[in-house]
Amino acid sequence: MTDFFISLGMDPTWAFVVATIAGILLIALPLMLAVAMIIYVDRKVWAAINLRRGPNVVGPFGLLQSFADGLKVFLQETIIPSAANKGIFILAPIITFTVALLAWAVIPFDAGVVLADINVGLLYILAISSLGVYGVTMSGWASNSKYPFFSAMRAAAQMISYEVSIGFILVCVVLYAGTFNLSDIVDAQKGHGLGFVNGYWFNVLLFPMWVVFFISSLAETQRVPFDLTEAESELVAGYQTEYSSMSFALFWLGEYANILLMCSLNTLLFFGGWLPPVDWAPLYAVPGIIWFFAKTFFFFFMFSWVMATVPRYRYDQLMRLGWKVFLPMSLLFVFLISGWLMLTRYGGAA
Question: 12-49 vs 245-270: helix axis angle to the nearest 10?
Fold first, then answer.
């Protein structure tokens, strides 16, 4: 894009600045629209599973319901508790929302279609996603209320527990692909069925790690059955209890942006990204970005499906699953995958 602006006669420095801003807007604005629409899809999926109609009044088929909800919270009064730490109270939802957007800078939507194609993209994702806990913790502490504070402590423990497992899962992916670059990780999945499957959607070695990654994604984004931070029967609304108006909406938008991010990572790391699901020539006629969005939407449907059907875990069950099941399992697969690669790819060389 920089070359395009230079061809228009723009100074190279300004061309780079304008191209970067344009790239950011091309990601951020459609992402906000996508968040609004997946909230609608989320509610429709829940309604269908519960044999209800869901949103069906505002706009055709209820498509404008999310925008009506956004207008409603925008017009509400922002109330800050008198005993709250006002600066941190206001800053917390901004951090949560901003961090949720920053991670998308390295997500490749198609071959070459990425804002920052850096060689340590996966490390960048891991670092940025771990910052999300700060917004939640700050909001719980700054509210000066017991229930939000309990929720913030739960969120911190929960995110740390599952990020450890996610870290080892990503080690497995990096070992197999031999790179931290997300575009190269997708390219490494070409024909990765170990000869058993003709496609880019199933790896015999990494499939168990995808199952763990998907469940950890639910816990990382605090979705059912791991929504212990917002357990309304225990914590009213969790860390968001004292928030209203746009500050509440920023938490909401950040949460769904993170959900979309985890769905896209499921697509990129394990299911071939923009590659077609089967290595069949006619499927390559479909643009890669369409395959990427279709796979991401499929994983979002799975998120909604789980939310509508699976009951909430107890907190001790949540911790036990993370530390006593997923952590040893991910460590075991680091050993198995590295051993397999030493025997097959590197000929057993030390």
Answer: 90
